[in-house]
Amino acid sequence: MSDISLSQLLEAGVHFGHKAYRWNPKMFPYIYSEVNNIHILDLVQSATLLKEANKYLKSAAQEGKSFLFIGTKRQAATLIAQEAKRCDSYYVNHRWLGGMLTNWTTLKERISHLKDLEKQEVENTFDLLPKKEGALRRKELKKLRKHLDGIKTMNNLPDVAIIIDQKREMTSIRECKKLGIPIVSILDTNCDPDLVDIPIPGNDDAVRSIKLILKSLTDSIISGKASST
Questions:
Q1: Superfamily for the 6-101+157-228 domain
Q2: How sure is the predictor about 219, in pLDDT bands with cuts at 50, 70 and 90?
Q3: Beta strands in the chain (DSSP E)
Q4: pLDDT tens-place string over residues 63-91
Q5: In which element (H, E) is residue 117 found?
Q6: Which of 73, 15, 77 is nearest to 46 (CA)?
Q7: Which terminus of the chain has fewer CB atoms gathered within 10 Å of its CB, N or C?
Q8: Where in the chain is the domain with CATH 1.10.287.610?
Q9: Fold for domain 104-150?
């Protein structure tokens, strides 16, 4: 895929950070200036690091590695599911359940239960049960789908995690760090670059910014998978 230009990053608002008082001093190297008490990110570095992230993901895809997209904030949820599906990867776009990775055995049991309930739904088993019992199972199925639908075909821990909004997804980041799963993440001015393996300085609140960067990362994974066949 072609590299994203500075004008594309600028147009998508990737350079807009948070108010200056909300910053993490560790992000100082990636900040270009401060305008009206808002930190402005250095788009030259954003473009360079996005290119590095794309190169890494393409190489990982060529090696047949698996990817988990994580982003539960409202602005990112739909995009996370859309882009993960586009490159045949896994995703979590609703609340992160503590232990999703570190307590993998228990999670696999929940996924198995989800698949069992889906089978019952297809076979119209719910309709054969007492009304209250059928309603409870439908409710449970809806809840499990909401949290696990994006990982129900994930048989093993992912090789790489792609995360939107470090501050919000800190639980998943800790689990990835504990398990040694590399993290690629957009880092806004309030983030800690030491917690990720491949940082991409950028606005993690604006839909256009998230969409542009996610699409670029996904294109790289698709390109890597295509060149490995």
A1: Glucose-6-phosphate isomerase like protein; domain 1 (3.40.50.10490)
A2: very high
A3: 16-19, 31-35, 38-41, 67-70, 90-92, 160-163, 183-187, 198-201
A4: 999 999 999 999 999 999 999 999 999 99
A5: helix 104-122
A6: 15
A7: C
A8: 104-150
A9: Helix Hairpins (1.10.287)
